[in-house]
Write a structure and sequence with these properties.
Elements: E1 2-4, E2 9-12, E3 22-26, E4 31-43, E5 46-52, E6 58-60, H1 79-100, E7 104-111, E8 120-126, E9 144-147, E10 150-158, E11 163-164, E12 167-168, E13 190-193, E14 202-205, E15 208-212, E16 215-220, H2 222-225, E17 236-238, E18 245-248, E19 262-271, E20 276-281, E21 291-292, E22 295-296, E23 313-318, E24 322-339, E25 342-353, E26 364-367, E27 372-379, E28 384-389, H3 391-397
Parallel strand pairs: 8-10
Antiparallel strand pairs: 1-4, 2-3, 4-5, 5-6, 7-8, 7-24, 9-10, 11-27, 12-14, 13-14, 13-18, 15-16, 16-20, 17-19, 18-19, 19-20, 21-22, 23-24, 23-26, 24-25, 25-28, 26-27, 27-28
Amino acid sequence: MKVTVNKYLNARAEQASTNAACFFYKSPGDTIEIDDVLIGTEIDGNSIWYHCKDDGCFYWSGGIEEQEFEIPGKATASNKDLIAIINTIKNDRSFYLSKRVIGYKGIGVGLKNDSGSLPLCLVIFVIEKINLNQLDASNSVPTSISYKGFQIMTDVKPVKEPATHNFIQHQNHEELKPDINFNPIAIGASISNNTPNKPSSGYGTRTMRVKKNSKDYLLSCFHVLLYNRIFSAGDFTYNGSIDEQAVFPSPIKNTAFPRNRFTHPVVEGELNGFYDYGLVELQSPFEIANNFDGTAITEFVKRAEVDEYIDTQVTIIGATSYKQTGKITSIKAEIEVECRGFQRKYFDVLVSEKISMGGDSGAPVITTDNKLLGYVIAGNERDVSFILPFYYLFLNKGITI
């Protein structure tokens, strides 16, 4: 197939990589006869490359005009390739789809119909599904997309009213059950903000004990520990300069045994598209035990490993739901959720079957091989839960377990 170059484009010898030798380049307006499409070095969120039939070189697809085409008979060899392809489509088309699809809430790489027996697909998250006969071509989602040589399936998944999963007392007047996992040193039980002169109105879940610069901290969500500091849909950073405290177990959820509560300062936090965390200073590492079903959690899932956990079972330990198990159905998702009355977008989110509810924000998400995958941030009451992977905190904030 003949395609057109639309920017200066290096010709890479022997492999689809920016590290490969380059002896010449193509200019805008030049044409290339391509005979294969493959995955190579990712540039600007795009890892799709072409092989030229005439000169035998490899060209990055980001410098080619044509996009909506398929090379007949081209099949992807692995989930790894499919994830890279669909992630490229997501990065390229998310803004366009957000303006086109009615009730759009997000996009990601996921399981078709939540089934592991079908190839991975591009998942569009919407408030609710609309019958095709009520839509026209301008706002319907095709069952598959031809994109840069590949044919990729799509799926539309309803996620009605997703919101952060902290519990706000005025939203529910039912009597709260005490923590099942009341042990004050356990992970996965309750925690509340305890700022002087500002009594907490809700609670979330303590994730686990973490380390930063050789000091011990307790991790939970920003929107749990620093809820009163969220004033808009913007980004927020907290550096401990103003007195904010956390108390665990939460007195809202546990009215008995006040002597068994711990109150410590919140010293750090950040809330934006990639982070939703706060750190509570601990006086001793013995205040929190990183144990799950009698097994010490000493490892977390690294960035290069996260994709392997799609279509696998995970378990949360939440202050409200306690122990719940479900399947990871989507990865690398962009999703909009309600947080204190504002719509907030999170990136690189893991999506699971519904395993959480209000009060479970911060709940640790544990894999079947006893690694920390991440922690719950949001979901809805019917379909899904949303999880932020832990590795971002390790790579960019120096936080580990």
